[in-house]
Amino acid sequence: MQRRVTAELLDDDLGTPAEIAASLRDLRHINEWFGGMRTTISLVRKVAAEARASEISLLEIGAGLGDVPLNARRRLVGDGLSLKVTLLDRLSTHLPQNGVSAVAGDAVHLPFRDGAFDVVSCSLFAHHFDPDALLHICGEALRVSRQAILINDLIRSRLHLLLVILGLPLFRSRITWRDAPASVSAAYTLEEMEALLSGVNARKLEVSRYFLYRMGAVLWK
């Protein structure tokens, strides 16, 4: 299955406020039900174990409502791990208004000093970019991180695309019906992601498969 990139409606707020809100809620359910949250939790645990840390500051880029890192923060309390989360999204309309630290900004030019966070993370974000742009974003993420970059994304395959199409009746937003198949078609395979990220100037790279067509990559600084 060849990678095919199609513009996604949510990326540019191409919908009514109610449709956009519904699509962001759908994303929360997708991550809860189909492995997104557990993937990020596993990746953060890996970094905490490597660093022997009980507290980690995390910047989530392309964050939207930040459901994935905020859920991870709640879950990791049971591990004795404190996760200090900052959210960044290009569109301020996607960010929560509930007191969570949130910044409207561009992942291509992160508005933070070098080494500002222990970890820079993203979920369902990497597949939006072609290889050159993703390499640039990873370079920026490495610049502002002290420990690692975490990439949580989809794995492209025909079977995954079929499962997503069959699951669309679970969701009500027309944006989700349009964007979910487009996300799978634009995603990278494990092999493609590993080859691409080998071009990043990182100390070590790990790319693994997680539950139900999720991949998790760690680039160690």
Q: How would you describe the overall organization of this protein?
A:
The protein is α/β, with parallel strands linked by helices and 221 residues long. It has a domain at 34-154 and 189-220: 3-Layer(aba) Sandwich (Rossmann fold). The chain is 40% helix and 22% strand. It contains 7 helices and 7 strands; from the N terminus they run ααβαβββαβαααββ. Strands 3-2-1-4-5-7-6 form a 7-stranded mixed β-sheet, with helices on both faces. Strand 4, helix 4 (131-144) and strand 5 form a beta-alpha-beta unit. Helix 5 (158-167) runs antiparallel to helix 6 (174-186). The longest helix has 17 residues, at 17-33.
Put the structure in a nutshell:
The protein has 221 residues and is of the alpha/beta class.
List keywords for this structure.
40% helix; alpha/beta; Rossmann fold; 221 residues
User: Any idea what the CATH superfamily of the domain at 34-154 and 189-220 is called?
Assistant: Vaccinia Virus protein VP39
Largest sheet: 7 strands, mixed
What is the typical, i.e. mean, pLDDT? 95
Overall form: globular
- CATH top level of the domain at 34-154 and 189-220? Alpha Beta
Structural class based on helices, strands and sheet pairing: alpha/beta
Beta-strand percentage? 15-25%
Spatial sequence of strands, sheet with the most strands:
3-2-1-4-5-7-6
End-to-end separation:
33 Å
Give me the CATH architecture of the domain at 34-154 and 189-220, please: 3-Layer(aba) Sandwich
* Total helical elements: 7
- Helix fraction? 25-40%
Q: How many beta-strand runs?
A: 7
Q: What's the alpha carbon Rg, rounded to whole Å?
A: 16 Å
- Uncertain runs are none
Named CATH topology of the domain at 34-154 and 189-220: Rossmann fold
User: Helix and strand succession?
Assistant: HHEHEEEHEHHHEE
